[in-house]
């Protein structure tokens, strides 16, 4: 019975991971969120599913001290700052505050998440860690887009991407497969309240002339799970596209 912990499962991609994984027979899913009582969409999904657990501390109890897959999806992205450049902040203090908060979630969050679940992952036979990243963390993509907005998000997600690679190198001799995955452009507005992942796109289109068609969470996660199911040792340390293959190649 494979076990999965999904970090950042209250909405969007993380919520869809929980929904699709719970629909598989003989799986155990741990949905890790900051505030379970306020995660109304997760509550609705978990209501009739006996294999979804919403308390991280129950992982060891339920699985006998083991975990097969860690999927780290938690991230900070604020619609109002995604279109801002460095000099669009009212003050340098506000820029610093935005960058610092983003780094704590998008950079350090990856490090802390893996460290917290590592003993359980080491005890399990599968040893798979997947960090949901973004094309916006890739320097070549950023240069090609010509889009200077959202530096706090991009810089902090780039830190998270490098942290993932560092973990991959640290754990490679223990049989782990640690990867980052670009989920594609996903419209998560259906479960994200006031924020939509696609809200900044009009500004992006205006500045770059590039048109992008977003996927639904269902489409993106279905592709990601197919990728995750097929992970092999040679994938360790790679930044993968959700549809397969290494990102940017």
TrEMBL record:
Quote one Gene Ontology molecular function term. Answer: oxidoreductase activity
Cite a GO CC annotation: cytoplasm
Quote the SUPFAM superfamilies the UniProt record gives: NAD(P)-binding Rossmann-fold domains
Top-level taxon: Eukaryota
UniProt family annotation: Belongs to the short-chain dehydrogenases/reductases (SDR) family.
Quote the protein name from its UniProt record: NAD(P)-binding protein
Q: What organism is recorded for this protein?
A: Lentinus brumalis
Q: What is the lineage of its organism?
A: Eukaryota, Fungi, Dikarya, Basidiomycota, Agaricomycotina
């Amino acid at each position: 019975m494979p076990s999965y912990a999904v970090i950042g499962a209250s909405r969007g991609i993380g919520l869809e991971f929980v929904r699709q994984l719970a629909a598989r027979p003989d799986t155990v899913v741990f949905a890790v969120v900051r505030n379970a009582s306020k995660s109304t969409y997760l509550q609705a999904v978990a209501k009739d599913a006996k294999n979804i657990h919403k308390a991280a501390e129950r992982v060891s109890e339920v699985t006998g001290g083991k975990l097969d897959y860690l999927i780290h999806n938690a991230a900070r992205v604020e619609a109002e700052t995604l279109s801002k450049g460095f000099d669009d902040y009212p003050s340098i203090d506000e820029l610093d505050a935005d960058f610092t908060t983003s780094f704590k979630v998008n950079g350090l969050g990856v490090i802390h998440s893996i460290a917290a679940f590592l003993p359980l992952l080491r005890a399990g036979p599968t040893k798979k860690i997947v960090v949901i990243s973004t094309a916006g963390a890739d320097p070549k993509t950023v240069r090609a887009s010509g889009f200077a907005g959202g530096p706090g998000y991009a810089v902090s997600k780039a830190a998270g991407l490098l942290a993932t690679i560092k973990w991959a190198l640290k754990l490679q001799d223990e049989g782990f497969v640690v990867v980052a995955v670009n989920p594609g452009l996903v419209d998560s507005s259906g479960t994200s309240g006031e924020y939509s992942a696609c809200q900044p796109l009009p500004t992006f289109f205006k500045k770059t002339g590039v048109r992008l068609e977003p996927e639904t969470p269902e489409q993106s996660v279905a592709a990601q799970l197919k990728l995750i199911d097929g992970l092999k040792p040679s994938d360790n340390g790679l930044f993968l596209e959700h549809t397969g293959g290494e990102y940017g190649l």
